């Protein structure tokens, strides 16, 4: 439905991440190779962490490929933690409040996929959102409701557990409404320090998701590649589809799992939705 | 907060209604005389009935005064029932799904005013909306929730009663949340045949609303005015503020009342919010 | 570069032309089969003749496939002469003033293709435009300059001759600036009565262009097709690519030729650029 | 017609310049006190110098007062040289390519005012632009042509002289076309190091322009004002109208003069258009 990119590492110019790659996210906005739709032209969003407490978010309803402001900002902004998302709407309106990433305090969230039969389950899902968080919902996407469910379930304390609970609730609700496969998702979220990336779908056939190989390993394999000497050891990309053809650079995130990118060792762990319990 | 215009009568070019008046709605978008805000530049909308079952709706986030598409359409479209609205946002995002008029089947709805403390009462109001209507809510304005409350209470069967119940519910909910004056409103709604226009506010100090004098009376007063000979006897305008200075042409809708414009005699009646009853 | 459609015939709902076809123009905006680019998402335009002297023009910078206003208008507007265009920018900014069709008085003009090395020849081409027409140029496309060259050369009196002179001038200017193949074009223009459609390129490899078969012939071949009984005998479509798969319905416009659709017999004639003569 | 602000000094958050003032530029976009128009809602632009060779430019066609992306960027970007502009169109289309500031290499340029009878003189002015610069003109404003005239006359070598020649040429051209008062202007331009600000009009009644008092002087006058201790000694603002009411803070730029803000002493000098000489 969409394509996204999450970067964590030494500060780089956003242009390096979004434009200067053979199969960059901007190229994918016109010609995605692995996406459910080839064209992702229904708006885009950029989230980045700078000197402020809160990350910046730039969102637009125009296709990314010809957006001059995105191009300008990409040439000026450097950041060590960047989220970028290009959208292919599955029906909800093309408007800035429906563009990812979504933000809550220092947290960002973006999603590729969909909640099945969303129009039918939307009310039940929205009712489950913490009433204090409810007024924050500004758009009409499944993703934003999903984000607020995760926040309701404690995203800020234990992200994997909160997402497992949110997905469990979405699945239980969907099934009650007759959906065979209630959710399809790759999700990235961050608090500005760590990045969590999830790959899961009720049908067990999730959208593609890749993470970049450890920089030290890549440097040993490609000692002459200058880019690999510019970035820090801990730099890591998670992407809907590989940005280039460098051998050994990209690894598929397995079905029903999630990765954590953080200071120190990263981790790859199984993801299991948590069934809702009675109150 | 906003300015609007409702026209019912013999078919006229939309341009006549929106542009060719001394204090036209387009002039009001830059310099409203009577509005709570002088500038109404946060998008606009046009609803009109043509040959189809369903009215057309054209909405844009650009200020009306310089919008070339609005100008073009106004020069091409003729209609006997037109709603037009220019918006001054009270906080909700400037996006097409927040522009009036809103539509449900053959019905249109537009509003000037606000629901007080909307962020605090939004959840309770939305929960009251018929779950079958709930998925139709596409934007994030108080007006759209208000419209769906009225639909829930039977707008399509008995518009005045439905609006009285919706306002009664909004007032009860607002008071529960500590609002002294829960609602401020002028509202117009239509099924394509009749137009209902309401003026009410909890504080008893409602936004301005005017209706045009009966055409036959005006013709007798101004026998040489050519415009008055072009329109049918039953033509009528309801507006947030007068479009011109013709003596005797404009009458204020009284506080806490509503008018009905319909084939046959029009009517002006008192408006009394209906307190919610226990189910 | 772009895709376009011109319709002349009995009045039809624009929706029929733009949406209700297997390979409609809206489908082509996302997935063109024959275009130089698959995606035509850099704005669109609609021109139509109604009751007024001047045709209406609706233009937007958003992709056509998700534009709600285009959808709304298409459901309300009927017309017997419609131009529609979806754009894939070849570099000039995505803005309404760069969207086709362009208008001059009662005339409309749209184009698929490009003027080679436009940045280098733009000044010379623009200088050739009649100084009285020059201030009318509002955008920055090659197409708009081309249109004004044709107007300068008498488009309103003898369209084929004016286009031949404009193309001749563009070719002579391009060659002086070192362009091997100065122009690539399919062009449609109309005065609201007749439609002229041109297919030509300096390289002799022009973009695709098709016209629909005479309705009477099609009816005889497909006696059970209901659509063919709804449209008048003289209805005709000219399109960048066929809108459907009806056998016998579509004919390619030959290289270096133009067609005239008009009351009475249509015609298909050779197109030969006219070399500029010394003043 | 428009309002603008130029800042040069120690790096500050753009939000401080655009939002956190009693009569900030954002406030002026809705309610200008001194402007020819009260509302400046026809787009805006922001230019800033960061770590790159070339300044960034962010431009939008939406009114500044509700633009969320401008708000976001203002909270993230710090810069020691900022240009900001809000537009009230005098007729040319509302599109990004018509928003100020305009850029050429490291140079920025913005303007409040107009070239009189621009439609009539546009061709002659444009022809005078260096043919190598001509293709860079992307919009349709008088300002952009004026900028390219100044570039043609050597803006990058001697800005005051180049602007004097450009204005002289515009005045001579305008008079030839029957304009009594060919130009009205306040202009700011910068190479990223110095800022030049001009105030001039053919009629001798120029739009308002103010510069801020030397910071050391202000600190002595207002020893307890914390803002004055945060900015460097050399910080300076030039604005269409004062941003606040601090006594002694704002000085009017005299008629027919220009100021230079640069490392070392600033200067205020007379401005005299240079009559064109025969080639």
How does this structure look, described?
The structure is a homotetramer of 279-residue chains. The first copy, chain A, is α+β, with helices and mostly antiparallel strands and 279 residues long. Helix content of chain A is 26%, strand content 28%. Chain A has 8 helices and 13 strands. Chain A has helices at residues 14-18, 25-31, 68-76, 118-128, 142-152, 159-176, 215-221, 227-230, and strands at residues 2-13, 44-48, 56-60, 78-87, 102-104, 107-115, 183-190, 195-201, 210-212, 236-239, 250-252, 257-261, 267-270. In chain A, the strands form 2 sheets. In chain A, strands 3-2-4-1-10-9-11 form a 7-stranded antiparallel beta sheet. Chain A has a 6-stranded antiparallel beta sheet with strand order 5-6-7-8-12-13. Chain A starts with a strand and ends in a 9-residue tail after the last strand. Chains in contact: A-B, A-C, A-D, B-C, B-D, C-D. Chain A binds chain D through residues 48, 50-52, 54, 56-60, 68-69, 72-73, 75-78, 96, and chain D through 48, 50-52, 54, 56-60, 68-69, 72-73, 75-78, 96.
Tell me what portion of residues of chain A adopts beta-strand conformation. Answer: 25-35%
Shape of chain A: globular
Oligomerization state? homotetramer
Care to count the β-strands of chain A?
13
Structural class of chain A: alpha+beta
The first-to-last residue Cα distance of chain A is 34 Å
User: Low-confidence runs of chain A (pLDDT<50, min 5 residues)?
Assistant: none
What's the number of helices of chain A? 8
- Biggest sheet statistics of chain A: 7 strands, antiparallel
Mean pLDDT of chain A: 92
Biggest interface, residues from each chain: A-D, 19 and 19 residues
How are helices and strands ordered from N to C of chain A? EHHEEHEEEHHHEEEHHEEEE
Strand order of the largest sheet of chain A: 3-2-4-1-10-9-11
Helical proportion of chain A? 25-40%
Radius of gyration of chain A: 18 Å
């Amino acid at each position: 439905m969409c394509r996204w990119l999450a970067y964590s590492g030494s500060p780089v110019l956003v242009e390096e991440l979004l434009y200067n790659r053979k199969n960059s996210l901007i190229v994918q906005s016109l010609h995605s190779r692995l996406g459910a739709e080839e064209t992702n032209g229904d708006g885009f969003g950029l989230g980045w962490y700078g000197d402020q407490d809160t990350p910046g978010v730039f969102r637009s309803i125009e296709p990314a490929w010809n957006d001059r402001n995105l191009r300008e900002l990409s040439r000026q902004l450097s950041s060590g933690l960047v989220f970028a998302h290009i959208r292919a709407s599955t029906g909800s309106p093309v408007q800035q409040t429906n563009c990812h990433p979504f933000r809550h305090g220092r947290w960002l969230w973006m999603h590729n996929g969909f909640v099945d039969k969303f129009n039918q389950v939307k009310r039940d899902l929205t009712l489950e959102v913490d009433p204090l968080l409810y007024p924050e919902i500004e758009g009409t996407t499944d993703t934003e409701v999903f984000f607020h469910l995760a926040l309701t379930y404690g995203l800020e304390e234990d992200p994997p557990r909160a997402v497992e609970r949110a997905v469990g609730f979405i699945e239980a609700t969907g099934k009650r409404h007759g959906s065979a496969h209630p959710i399809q998702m790759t999700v990235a979220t961050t608090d500005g320090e760590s990045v969590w990336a999830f790959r899961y779908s009720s049908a067990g056939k999730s959208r593609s998701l890749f993470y970049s190989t450890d920089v030290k390993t890549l440097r040993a394999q490609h000692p002459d590649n200058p880019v690999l000497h510019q970035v820090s050891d801990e730099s890591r990309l998670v992407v809907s589809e590989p940005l280039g053809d460098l051998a050994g650079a990209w690894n598929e995130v397995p079905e029903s799992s999630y990765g954590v990118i953080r200071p120190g060792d990263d981790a790859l762990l199984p993801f299991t939705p948590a069934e809702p319990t009675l109150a």
